[in-house]
Structure prediction request, 98 residues.
Amino acid sequence: MRPKYSFFFAAEDWIQARATSIAQQAYLRTHQPPVLAMWGKNDSFFVPPGAEVFKRDVPVAEVRFVDSGHFALETHAREIGAAMRELFGNHIGWPSAV
Prediction:
């Protein structure tokens, strides 16, 4: 039996992840929802060019980089939260400042 959490994925996990990614990309292309990608510019796991891929499916996607590594939310929670409130305010009328 595989452990519940692991840094290594079994082959079927990669296959499922790829299938999910394809479905997500199709959804983005079809529905063109508002997209905000907040990314750590020093992330060595999900490198910054990966964030730009959102623009391939949603050309008006907003991609922002923070001076962080992989765990950007831990060090830039206020900035990321403000960007999310701004996105919601622009698209569904939520107040941009709370």
In short: Residues 11-31 form the longest helix (21 residues).
